[in-house]
Amino acid sequence: MSKFAKNQWYAAAWLAELGNTLVARRILDEPVVLFRDSDGKVVALADRCPHRLVPLSMGTLVDRGIQCGYHGMVFDGAGRCAHIPGQDKIPPRAEVRSYPIAERYGIAWIWMGDAARADLTRLPVIDHYDDEGWELIDGGYQHHPSNYLNIVENLMDPAHTTFVHKMTIGNPAAKSEPVKMKKEDDYIVAFKWLFNSPPSPMDRQIKDFGDQSVDRGQFFYYYIPAVSRVDIITIPAGLEPTEENFNKGLRNNSYKFLTPETDGSTHFFWMHLRNYKIGDKEWSQRMRGLFEKTFLEDREIEMAMQRSQEELGVRQFVGLEIDRAPTVAIRMIDRLIKEEAKDSGKVAA
Amino acid sequence: MSKFAKNQWYAAAWLAELGNTLVARRILDEPVVLFRDSDGKVVALADRCPHRLVPLSMGTLVDRGIQCGYHGMVFDGAGRCAHIPGQDKIPPRAEVRSYPIAERYGIAWIWMGDAARADLTRLPVIDHYDDEGWELIDGGYQHHPSNYLNIVENLMDPAHTTFVHKMTIGNPAAKSEPVKMKKEDDYIVAFKWLFNSPPSPMDRQIKDFGDQSVDRGQFFYYYIPAVSRVDIITIPAGLEPTEENFNKGLRNNSYKFLTPETDGSTHFFWMHLRNYKIGDKEWSQRMRGLFEKTFLEDREIEMAMQRSQEELGVRQFVGLEIDRAPTVAIRMIDRLIKEEAKDSGKVAA
Amino acid sequence: MSKFAKNQWYAAAWLAELGNTLVARRILDEPVVLFRDSDGKVVALADRCPHRLVPLSMGTLVDRGIQCGYHGMVFDGAGRCAHIPGQDKIPPRAEVRSYPIAERYGIAWIWMGDAARADLTRLPVIDHYDDEGWELIDGGYQHHPSNYLNIVENLMDPAHTTFVHKMTIGNPAAKSEPVKMKKEDDYIVAFKWLFNSPPSPMDRQIKDFGDQSVDRGQFFYYYIPAVSRVDIITIPAGLEPTEENFNKGLRNNSYKFLTPETDGSTHFFWMHLRNYKIGDKEWSQRMRGLFEKTFLEDREIEMAMQRSQEELGVRQFVGLEIDRAPTVAIRMIDRLIKEEAKDSGKVAA
């Protein structure tokens, strides 16, 4: 049984990374090379020439596809060999695996499982992307040397903010709020409200609230297997909590797309959408810096956990109340992987 | 069966290291964090939060103990959980192992085995520590990437001095002396006398011997499992070799406390006591430099041995006469470990 | 069965490396120390003192041989212990393995197998070495972190030149020529002729050909298990292709001596002989730089192959026509290793 759910879309690269270059990236522990074919379409191939196993990413982009840097074999975007220098006949095994790619939200999404099942309707949905009145920060990437489950747990757990992020977004004065939870088939959300409070210092920088009290909601969504969305809402105290009213307040949507690199490391892509300070690039720059620093604080913890888990072969010794939502999230992934394995029978890799 | 004798005191840290900080150190292949509790008492805990396995040493010192840097769980010096943010009930398994600590001779001694057997009467004894008329050099520490048995053998073997320490304390002109040996239950000493000789160049720097001949004794003590003491004595030739007379001559007591870090690396703590040049800090500084350099010469050899042993899976191919005392020392450790294993029955880790 | 053919001569070191020093080098995955004995003869010993396994190369050269840096044991060039400080009796096991060495062509050749079979008539033969009218570039060495079979294949395969060496010796305009092959018991040669063509740009730098057309031959010899010779000949078009005529044209003989260091790395020694620009040291320097750069281009590819092979446990997925000669070469090595194993029966290491 694979350690990963494979029949899923994972963020493989920012489209902006894929200009006139070859991008080599290990995804679900397989070496992949991404590039644009001569039509500008993003394609992804197994990053190994079938001849001598040299990574194709050491080669060059040519009209018909990618040319191996060792003996010049050319493979097209479908992984078919289009040319062998000095040889007319193309052997049947002269091919490399091609992975389905979808381009959306500025991201190349890859499908590492059964290509026949690649289903565009299952791509992640990012609300308000490209909407007027919403400002986007994108292109975020960090390499986190930790299993992606550790990152999922971290992102489903607001309790660590006070301790891990005291230098960035943590608020030591914040009184612990009870966290609630809602689970659907393909996602889970943990959330808490702070009612009728003064606005946060940062909210005051965004808008003049005067003496007005606010209700502040924090929603931690996790869509299996690889998308986290943190939705933070500040609305006037007492306003009915509807999606429409949320958009009238200050709203932050922070997305992370977690793509396992190996069993012990993760590609951490992130973007952020807000409904205020539209067009304010200076504010965006400042937020970007704050987010990067915050995620690096998490990274330190995640790395330490990874080392302990590798040494001990377990993930934890005692559970806490704050683990409820993360525990459900991990179980959802477990079930997904098991279902995939059952589904594909003995074919599962 | 453990590779190490566990029901023993090992040097864990210099007390001077333990101010207002957390000291993380792997000891007998277990991660340990040392700190002073609010009463100033040194305590040692397993360096892993039982919740998510993050090292507690990444956290902070608080009034009630140590606070995990991930979710703020607090553990007191006994390893009991004293606080969980946002949760009133402390689960029974929310605890970490606490190791007995004894503070003596400027050192925090740790007992890694069965806490119920931790016995202060079994602490190492350092003669003349704090005695008037004796000058101390302490605080010495080196990390030696070699199994501690290689270091024990080295310290029981004066024969290597001519070859390994030719740039420091070696004396190429020294004629080999027959080494004698005495074994007791818990220690062994190898020793040799050079009778009726001119004083060494260094002894002449310490004292004006005129034309006087001296007897020079070298005693290499090893107290299982982890203490080495080299006792070097220069007395007027012919003086009766009694403990009382030794103290009338020039006397150097060099102590090393070997604490296995892993199977292939060792914490090497050292101190030195002398009965001359009392209060002479400049001389102490010079000796400290000489010792550090000497121990680094041994370290090179020990590292090379470790690499060979790891590759070959053996410790030596042929024995020499000079191996007598080291061989007995190694056997004493072997027996100690076997007795511990038998003693603890199937519980032995 | 060994991974290597052992009853063979391998290049161990340049004689010029062996002055008044100890050269430590792992060969066929065994640690070896090379030095000149007091007669100036090169000797090779297992690089481990049999006492405590310290590498002898950490010791010093003395009159009677090599002295261990730990306790001063001295071993002569035959590996016999000649002296133990402080001990008169030499134990029978106080010896180290000695390897046969032959000095020829500026190289110390080592025989890692059964010493009784070391046969000087089986040393590699280098034509025109020391001949008048031939200019030598020698002393070349690179460390290639790849199994030597990958390097053998590379050296038997002219097809990669266009792609790997486009910055150095590759000629993108060169039309692919059919490669022919001839196999004998102990060598194989792949070769191709380009008939009646204009001289190459480099050939024009060497000699004024005027309007003359040339025939250009490239011969890729591989002598099992470890010698590659690339013989490149430029003669007037139509001249009969005889060895005598070859020497009348421009001729380059590029030798590589591949000595496995481990299963995944290789000592790459090289020398070059030419029959033009005799005594032109500036030209030699320029060629040396070009060769070094070219071999480093190959090294990049070889390293990448090694990593893929280690991950996948296979060497290739599909064969091409250009693999004919390399495949035969690899089979010749395989057979040699199998014959050695059969020959030595159960004694094979």
Automatic annotation (TrEMBL), chains A, B, C:
InterPro entries: Cholesterol_7-desaturase (IPR050584), Rieske_2Fe-2S (IPR017941), Rieske_2Fe-2S_sf (IPR036922), VanA_C_cat (IPR044043)
Keyword annotations of the record: 2Fe-2S, Iron, Iron-sulfur, Metal-binding, Methyltransferase, Monooxygenase, Oxidoreductase, Transferase
The EC number(s) this enzyme carries: 1.14.13.82
GO terms (BP aspect): methylation
Domain of life: Bacteria
Enzyme's top EC category: oxidoreductase
GO molecular function terms attached to this record: 2 iron, 2 sulfur cluster binding; metal ion binding; methyltransferase activity; vanillate monooxygenase activity
Segments forming domain Rieske: 9-110
Gene3D superfamilies listed in its UniProt record: Naphthalene 1,2-dioxygenase Alpha Subunit, Chain A, domain 1, Rieske [2Fe-2S] iron-sulphur domain
Statement: the UniProt record of this protein carries the keyword Metal-binding: yes
Listed PANTHER family: 3-KETOSTEROID-9-ALPHA-MONOOXYGENASE, OXYGENASE COMPONENT (PTHR21266:SF60), IRON-SULFUR DOMAIN CONTAINING PROTEIN (PTHR21266)
Protein name per the record: Vanillate O-demethylase monooxygenase subunit
